[in-house]
Amino acid sequence: MGCPPPAAVWIWTFLLLLLEASAGHLRAQEPKVLEGQECQAHSQPWQTALFQGVRLLCGGVLIDDHWVLTAAHCKKEKYTVHLGEHSLQNKDGPEQKMSVAQSIPHPCYNSSSEDRSHDLMLVRLRGRASLGPKVKPIKLADHCPQAGQKCTISGWGTITSPQENFPDALNCAQVKIVSQKLCEDAYPGRVTDSMVCAGDISGADTCQGDSGGPLVCDGVLQGITSWGSDPCGRPEKPGVYTKICRYLDWIKKTMSRRA
C-alpha cells in the first residue's frame, strides 16, 4: 500500500481541530469498554495487554505464537506484553509476561501528526507464547466488514468517561459495524477507507486504555481500536478502528520476512 502525501491531511486535520475545540477534544493518546460488562473469563484468549512497568498502556491481539497486533500510537521505547490475563490483580494460571523483540509500526503511520491513518503495529515477541485454550491466536479477516454486522470489543480501559475508572477484569461489549458514509459524516474529513466505525445506540464504545485491542466479528479480527470521541460513548460518534482487511499483505509480508 502506497503512502499518500501528508500535506492535505495536515491542513484538514488542523482545520478540524480548530472546529472541534469548542465541541470537545479528541480522545487522549491511549484510547474502555463503555456500556459493557465483565467478559466471561478467558473468552477472548487472543486479548493481550501492553504494560510499561505496572502501568497499562494499551490492548493488543495475539495473531501468532510470536506476533501481536496493536495500534501504532501505542509504541513506547520499552514495554512488555501480557497474555492470558483476565483479572489484572488475581492470577489464575495461564498468564504469561513476554518481552518485546521488535516493534514495527506500519510504514505510512506518522507519529508526529494528529492524523490516525495506518494506526497499526506488529509486535514480535521475544520467545514463543505457550498456546492453549486460554491463550490462542485469532484468525485475521480475509474480507472487509459489512454495515450492521455484530462484533465484540474488549479491553481493560476506563469504564466511565470523561472521569476515568479502570476495571480489574477484562470488559466486553457488543457493537455493530457502521456504514462508511455514517462514519465519515460523524468525523468529517478524518475517516479513510482504511478505517471502520462500530458503535451502538446504548453508547457501547472503546475508550482510554483500550487502544490496540480487538474488534472481533464472526470469530475473526476485523479491526484494531484506534480513536474516537471524547468523552467516549456518544452514540452519534462511534469508535474508529483500523480496518484489518486493508493490511493483510503488509502483515503477512512483515511476519514472513522476520520469521
Low confidence ranges = 6-32
- Which percent band covers the strand fraction? 25-35%
The second-level CATH architecture is Beta Barrel
CA gyration radius, whole angstroms:
17 Å
What is the fourth-level CATH superfamily? Answer: Trypsin-like serine proteases
- Write the element-wise H/E pattern from the N-terminal end onward: HEEEEEEEEEEHEEEEH
Determine and state the CATH class. Mainly Beta
Domain Peptidase S1: 33-256
InterPro entries: Peptidase_S1_PA, Peptidase_S1_PA_chymotrypsin, Peptidase_S1A, Trypsin_dom, TRYPSIN_HIS, TRYPSIN_SER
Enzyme class: hydrolase
EC number: 3.4.21.35
Structure write-up:
This protein is mainly β and 259 residues long. The protein is built from three helices and 14 strands. It has a single domain, classed as Beta Barrel (Thrombin, subunit H). The protein has a six-stranded antiparallel barrel. Strands 2-3-4-7-6-5 form a six-stranded antiparallel beta barrel. β12 and β13 form a beta hairpin. The longest helix is centred in the N-terminal third of the chain and has 14 residues, at 7-20. Mean pLDDT is 88; it is low at 6-32.
